């Protein structure tokens, strides 16, 4: 009898600059058999996130680089296919870190059981998952928006930015979103309820942003860098706060791309003269208690209709490499996920 096959995607080579499809390899290997104390997960949905670009690089970062041949990392929603673990039953739906593969073994460590009756399971990868928690802890711990202040959010239609802006609105701030293209801008304004949205593709983007922020910017949630940061920096008020969550405009930079303008002197001058707080953070810097708080609070906001989300769904694990490449170029619209199984 033919042994069942596990479809997986591994890192084939380290990208230089923009990743290529050939930097990834699709493999078919036998489905592993769980031992006592283990369970076999069948992945249903895979999360694609910008941090993955850092994980495939060998440059020093906050996380250990992946090795060539490793299964690509990623958060997943999975069904317990087979259980030999006393705490888990076949059919349980779980949040896991199974990565880019259809089947994976687990000893139960790090799994979180999900109840589909409470929310669609895929929300645990987005608005009720790592992106939502990132928005919550970064905005409230570092940004600390006050009622009436001006909060500007880059990548406002994305998984993190969309939640940042909605939380800022809930806290009573005036929110300006930055997004790319008319469709994304319309979604941010009409569906998410931001006060103003500016298209960063517009040739007069910097002028439009200045017009949208006549009283300056008190909190800027940085997801992008590049020309967006160039337009934001002159508008920051005294004592502005800048949570630095991502720099997606630079993730694909190769050695030749690093010979452009040096933004550091101008940035440091403004930080000093305006007493700006600019702090990078990783979501896992914050205590587990704040994650529990977030799940309770965000769940209530969703039930009250105050927190909305959008998913961009790609069909088929074999299409994950091209989808990730597109994500790094801003081609996704909402939280990007891959539907792996039924």
From TrEMBL:
UniProt entry keywords in alphabetical sequence: Oxidoreductase
InterPro entries the UniProt entry points to: ADH-like_C, ADH_N_2, ER, GroES-like_sf, MDR_fam, NAD(P)-bd_dom_sf
Domain Enoyl reductase (ER) span(s) in chain numbering: 17-338
EC number: 1.3.1.-
A GO term, aspect molecular function: oxidoreductase activity, acting on the CH-CH group of donors, NAD or NADP as acceptor
EC primary class: oxidoreductase
PANTHER family reported for this sequence: PROSTAGLANDIN REDUCTASE (PTHR43205), PROSTAGLANDIN REDUCTASE 1 (PTHR43205:SF7)
This protein's name: NADPH-dependent curcumin reductase
């Amino acid at each position: 009898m033919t042994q069942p096959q596990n479809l997986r995607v591994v890192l084939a080579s380290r990208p230089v600059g923009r990743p290529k499809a050939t930097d990834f390899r699709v493999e078919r290997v036998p489905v592993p058999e769980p031992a006592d104390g283990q369970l076999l997960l069948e992945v249903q949905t895979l999360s694609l996130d910008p941090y993955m670009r850092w994980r495939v690089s060998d440059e020093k970062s906050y996380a250990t680089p992946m090795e060539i041949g490793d299964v690509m990392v990623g958060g997943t929603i999975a069904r317990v296919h087979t259980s030999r673990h006393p705490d888990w039953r076949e059919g349980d739906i779980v949040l896991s870190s199974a990565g880019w593969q259809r089947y994976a073994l687990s000893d139960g460590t790090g799994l979180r059981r999900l109840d589909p009756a409470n929310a669609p399971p895929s929300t645990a990868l987005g608005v009720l998952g790592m992106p939502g928690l990132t928005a919550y802890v970064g905005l409230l711990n570092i940004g600390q928006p006050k009622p009436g202040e001006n909060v500007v959010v880059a990548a406002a239609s994305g998984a993190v930015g969309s939640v940042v802006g909605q939380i800022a609105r809930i806290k009573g701030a005036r929110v300006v979103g930055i997004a790319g293209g008319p469709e994304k801008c319309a979604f941010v304004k009409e569906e998410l309820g931001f006060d103003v949205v500016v298209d960063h593709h517009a040739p007069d983007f910097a002028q439009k942003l200045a017009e949208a922020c006549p009283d300056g910017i008190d909190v800027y949630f940085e997801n992008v860098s590049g020309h967006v940061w160039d337009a934001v920096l002159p508008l920051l008020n005294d004592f502005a706060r800048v949570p630095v969550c991502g720099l997606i405009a630079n993730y694909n930079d190769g050695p030749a791309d690093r010979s452009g303008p040096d933004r550091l002197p101008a940035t440091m001058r403004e930080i000093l003269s305006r007493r700006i707080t600019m702090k990078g953070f990783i979501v896992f810097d914050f205590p587990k208690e704040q994650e529990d708080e977030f799940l309770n609070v965000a769940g209530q906001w969703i039930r009250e209709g105050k927190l909305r989300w959008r998913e961009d769904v790609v069909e088929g694990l074999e299409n994950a490499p091209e989808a990730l490449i597109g994500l790094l170029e801003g081609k996704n619209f909402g939280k990007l996920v891959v539907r792996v199984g039924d």
